[in-house]
Hints:
Blueprint: E1 9-12, H1 18-29, E2 33-38, H2 42-54, E3 58-63, H3 69-82, E4 88-91, H4 107-135, E5 138-143, H5 147-150, H6 157-177, E6 182-189, H7 202-210, H8 220-231, E7 242-245
Parallel strand pairs: 1-2, 1-4, 2-3, 4-5, 5-6, 6-7
Helix pairs in contact: 1-2, 1-8, 3-4, 4-6
Amino acid sequence: MSNDLTGKVALVTGSSRGLGAGIAMKLAACGAKVAVNYFGSEEKAKSVKQQINEQGGSAEIFKANVTDEQEVKQMCQKITETLGEIDILVINATGPQPIIKIEDLTWQDMLNQLDFFVKSPLYLVQQVIASMKRKKYGRIINIGSEVFETAAPLEFSNYISAKGAQLGLTRSWSSELAAFQITVNLVAPGWIPTERHANDSQEAKDQYAETVPLKRQGKAEDIGDTVAFLASDGANFITGQRISVNGGKTVE
């Protein structure tokens, strides 16, 4: 089944690098007009856009801090004016993910993670659901993590708890928006090496791969493929689900 997204407009937050870039390129390859969101590096965002264009796709870049309500609103307005109303929202952007043991954990450490996995999704969804409801069509896809199931690594409760909250939003919003034919799902990757993991040792990566039934780590393209499927008509009867893409490390 082809994941044909021709004519659709997709916003992928945090898509200037890593998983987000892989997702943006896959959606563009399937025919979507892609809004590449970035905050830190315009150069990297331009590179993603260039790669998409060179492969025959369509993309534009949009700068915004997705934890800031006004910036989210302005970005979504610019996307609508430039590409059209947003049909597919992929909530991928994240910030620093510090390892902090309980004794040193502060409430601000918790809020820093909730900013990306609860506050940002709220602001983004509020900007897109009016048009989705009117059209009786929409795809909202959160990018989660396997850590909510595995509870690893240690001293990571700030991040893991926020990812749990993100899953709660996914399930609740899927029920609330179902009457409007808007689907809401979450893709939960395993440890997939990206630029964020540049300083991680090969030994650590090999040790993780040994715990995966398929005996390897995934690639950004694996996440892009899953997101593209959930965004397609082939997934129009799938909502409220957590889809693990981790080589079988967790089973549900």
